[in-house]
Design a protein that fits this description.
Blueprint: H1 2-24, H2 31-49, H3 52-57, H4 63-84, H5 92-122, H6 126-155
Length: 156
Amino acid sequence: MKHIGIYVSLFALGHSTTMLLGVYFDVGINSYIIDAIIGLSVVYKALDNMGAIQRWFGFQPNTKLATLIFGFFHGFGLSTKIIEYDISPDGLVPNLLAFNIGVEIGQLLALAAILIVMGYWRRTPSFFRHAYTANVVMMTAGFVLIGYQLTGWFVS
């Protein structure tokens, strides 16, 4: 649980920082590009789960740093979407903070549900048989997201 807390905190720090500062300073990134990078983060994590990065490159990237960096990108994704709504500057900071707290609470609730399900699944014999397949499905979804977003970027 200590390690999970560290990774969740790093992701939340990155996510919150770029979401709040991006909206406050009106800094957005093309949503197609940022969503493609988010897809890349899914592919990276699936490959990391399968040990592919270690095998292919002979070293393990700093997973804490990767978590923080991908948190920054995920936050920019959200800030870009918020900026598109052209929200009023009146009460912007308290509204952004309240929104961010809500987002982080939602992410913690989703993580709690995932950890409960994963905890039960890990105790079954099917976990080791299907974990690789689950990561391949996750990686495939990430590649589909990347392709979909890059196609949107080229077409728009």
